[in-house]
Structure formats: C-alpha cells, structure tokens
Amino acid sequence: MTTDRNDLNMGMRCVKYMIFVINFMFLLTAILIVTVGTAIGTIFGDFEYFIDSHFFSPAHLLVAIGIIMMFVSIFGCIGAVKESTAMINIYGVLLAIVFILELAAAISAFALQGQVKEMVRRTLNESMANYNGNPSVEQSVDFMQQVLECCGVDSHKDWSFFLQPVANATESDVVVPESCCPPSTLKESCIPYEYGCLDRLQWVVAQSAALIATGAMTVAFVQILGSICAFMLARTIRRTKSLRAARRWQLQQSLGIMTKPHNPSYTQMEKSEKNPDSEMYLPNSPSVN
C-alpha cells in the first residue's frame, strides 16, 4: 500500500514538474515575443512618416500577446502547485485563446506584405513634396537617407521635382539635401548616394512584417501543443487524485476506520433482530405440553 501511495505521489510530482517546464518555456517565449515586437515597433517608429498606421498593429499585437502569455504562465504554475484540474483546464483554454491571437497577428502581417511597395512609394513622394515646408518631415527624410544610405525614391534625380535648382546650374545638376551625400564628401563636392530609398525602405518594412508573421506562426504552433498538453495533464491530475482517494479509502477500511457516522437506531434494530422477544413463539421452542 505504501509503495502504491509513493508511486502516486511520484506521478503527481512528475506532472507538476512537467507543467513548470512547459510554463518556463512559455515564459521565455513571451519575453522573446515582447522583445521582437518592441524592436519592430521601434523600427517602424523611426520611419513613421513613411509607414501607414495600420502597419503598427501586428507589432503592437505581438507585444500584447507576449504580456498575456506571461500572466498565463504564472496562472498555470499556480494551478500546478494547487493540483487544481479546473485551473489547469482554464490554463489550456487561455493558451487556445492566445493561439487565436497569434494566428491573427501572423495573418495580418502576411497580408500587409503585399501592400508595402505601393505604400512606401506613396509616402516617400508625399514626404519629399513637404520637405521644405515641414521641419518634422525634413528631419525624418534626412534621418532615413542617412541611415539607409539612399537618396530620392528611385534615385537622387527624383529631387529635381521637389527642390528648385540653384542659379547657374546646368540641366545635369540636381539639387539634393545634404543627407543624400556621405559625410566624407560634404566638405568637397556632394556625391549623392547611388541607390534610391524605395527598395531599401521596402526591404526593411517587408522583412519586419515577415519576421512578425513567421514568429507568430511558430509560437502559435507551440502554443496549441501546449494547450493540448494542458488538457492531458489536467486529466492526469484528476485520475491521480481519484486513485489517491481510492487508496486512502482502502487504507481506512483495512484499519477498521468507519467512514460513516454511527447510527444508534440502526444498531438497536440489529440487536432487536438478533435478540427476539422471549415470549414470541419460535418453531424451535419447546412444546408447552
């Protein structure tokens, strides 16, 4: 009997450890998701004048999913400590909800990839048109061209549509902002960057969206497996607790411990049945005669 009880305790301990390991992995995954979402949100924030607002949604959703996963992991650990099948089942349901959110983030990120090129071309042209009239736009365009080492939309010649040429300039001379030139050439003659900003900014935005989509899909796959494991572990806990109760009942019975309260009337009735009235005639009673 002691061996069986030890086996049950060992099985429950293994279940707890398994839940702790799963939750620890989910906690690390949540931290990674928050880090990736924050990093991509920061990148988009640096180029916010060239990116539509709805492109920020997948990154923000990824951060929210990571935070939710942290609380869900803590909830699962508490359920494991208390050996509560209800809490573990709720934990599995929460994992399934997080899976749906991750799937939504991945689908939205994949859908946005097809809109990147058109959006970037439009926002670049709008920003260059407002370059001289808006200091914030001017600062953003200069930052983009310096960081990405590019100039204009397709080439530096695109600036001829937005900036007025200087006096005595030939047709081949194109006025460009100083941010179009490498720092080493500013003191001499400005040699604009060879590449336009369209392809480079498009690559940054598209790769960020692809990273969100791929990461969300990968984590979602692990998440649904975790949800299935949670339901299986809840069933294991319930079965183990039932076996514990059965072993405890058998031990009580073997030690002669009554699990039901003493009923005097029932005992009195038993005595009356075993000791019938002496005046009652029984077949085995001696004959009066």
UniProtKB/TrEMBL annotation:
Main localization category: membrane
Region described as Disordered: 258-289
Keywords, in A-Z order: Membrane, Transmembrane, Transmembrane helix
SUPFAM superfamilies: Tetraspanin
Record Pfam families: Tetraspanin
Domain of life where this protein originates: Eukaryota
Transmembrane parts of this sequence: 20-44, 59-81, 88-112, 209-234
Gene3D superfamilies xref list: Tetraspanin
Compartments reported by the entry: Membrane
InterPro entries reported for this sequence: Tetraspanin/Peripherin, Tetraspanin_animals, Tetraspanin_EC2_sf
Ranges of biased composition (kind: Polar residues): 258-269
Membrane topology summary: Multi-pass membrane protein
GO CC annotations, alphabetized: plasma membrane
Similarity field: Belongs to the tetraspanin (TM4SF) family.
PANTHER family, per the entry: TETRASPANIN (PTHR19282)
Protein name: Tetraspanin
Source organism per UniProt: Aedes albopictus
